Design the sequence.
């Protein structure tokens, strides 16, 4: 117990040194080692034929939303696979929603997806969508996402954003993106100091690659966080709220089942009920606290989360169809 306390004290007193040591050597001396995920499933690109079986859902299966009776949602045709659209899921020590993100991308929306360990220095060639999943990267040492932001892979994620490639950060992924300053604001401890794990409702309030054509739509999604209270200074908030065109903007707000934005529907005390934010040069970065990948199939009780993925893939396919010789990630997807 004394040794563990000593390790934690060193982390607090020497933040930068400990972060570099943990990134460079895999762990801090005296701290339990976190196993590399390659011991479970080596990072590699999976073509959609490798996992497809007769029991999988057909590519163009109808998906019903729980929030709009009788509504239907279908992935864009032609498929992402036909246009070479690819994705990558970045995994950190402590990530715990990577499996759900991988399943959603590979099997629900049929996008060949690589698993990328945070110590890699570059994303796989041709990747158009990068997803940073939820969890507790590096055990939330210092604060959520504070150590993950100095991982080697982050530099190439920045380059991917600058090229116009799509990035989705969910829960801890959202926290990491704010720490990297790829999104404005910060995620802080929930107002009531409780870990929240339940379904909530959000309203789409901005257009972007992940929300094209679904403005004002209400989605039921699960949350699981203790540090989800979005905060931004007064000037930054005014800019975010007044955004137009492709400028960073509020993407999602917590609301009631009927779409009312009210205090009782805000699970963590986020300023202006902000649940998700767009950033990047062309709103190509989306961070949100709810988990769309955990509600992407009817067997989850709702497939509302799939809608965000379908919108993004449709935007990427549209770009690829217009310029098939160009990489989607070098042109962006509005």
Sequence:
């Amino acid at each position: 117990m004394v040794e563990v306390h000593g390790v934690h004290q060193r982390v607090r007193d020497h933040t930068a040194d400990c972060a570099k040591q943990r990134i460079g050597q895999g762990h801090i001396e005296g701290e339990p080692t976190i196993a590399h995920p390659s011991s479970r499933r080596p990072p590699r690109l999976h073509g959609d034929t490798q996992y497809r079986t007769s029991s999988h859902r057909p590519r163009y299966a109808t998906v019903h939303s729980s929030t709009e009776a009788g509504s239907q949602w279908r992935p864009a045709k032609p498929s992402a696979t036909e246009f070479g659209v690819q994705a990558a899921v970045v995994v950190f020590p402590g990530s715990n929603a990577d499996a759900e993100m991988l399943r959603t991308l590979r099997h629900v929306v049929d996008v060949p997806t690589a698993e990328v360990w945070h110590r890699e220095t570059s994303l796989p060639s041709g990747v158009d969508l990068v997803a940073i999943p939820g969890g507790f990267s590096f055990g939330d040492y210092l604060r959520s996402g504070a150590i993950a932001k100095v991982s080697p892979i982050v530099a190439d994620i920045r380059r991917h954003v600058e090229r116009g490639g799509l990035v989705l950060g969910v829960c801890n992924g959202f926290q990491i993106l704010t720490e990297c300053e790829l999104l404005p604001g910060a995620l802080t401890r929930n107002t009531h100091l409780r870990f929240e794990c339940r379904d909530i409702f959000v309203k789409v309030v901005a257009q972007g690659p992940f929300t094209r054509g679904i403005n004002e739509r209400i989605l039921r999604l699960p949350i699981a966080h203790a540090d989800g209270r979005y905060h931004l200074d007064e000037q930054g908030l005014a800019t975010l709220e007044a955004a137009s065109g492709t400028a960073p903007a509020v993407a999602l707000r917590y609301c009631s089942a009927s779409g009312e934005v009210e205090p009782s529907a805000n699970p963590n005390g986020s300023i202006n009920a902000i649940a998700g934010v767009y950033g990047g040069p062309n709103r190509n970065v989306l961070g949100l606290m709810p988990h769309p990948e955990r509600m992407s199939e009817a067997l989850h009780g709702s497939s509302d989360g799939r809608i965000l993925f379908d919108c993004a893939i449709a935007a990427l396919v549209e770009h690829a169809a217009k310029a098939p010789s160009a990489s989607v990630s070098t042109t962006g997807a509005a």
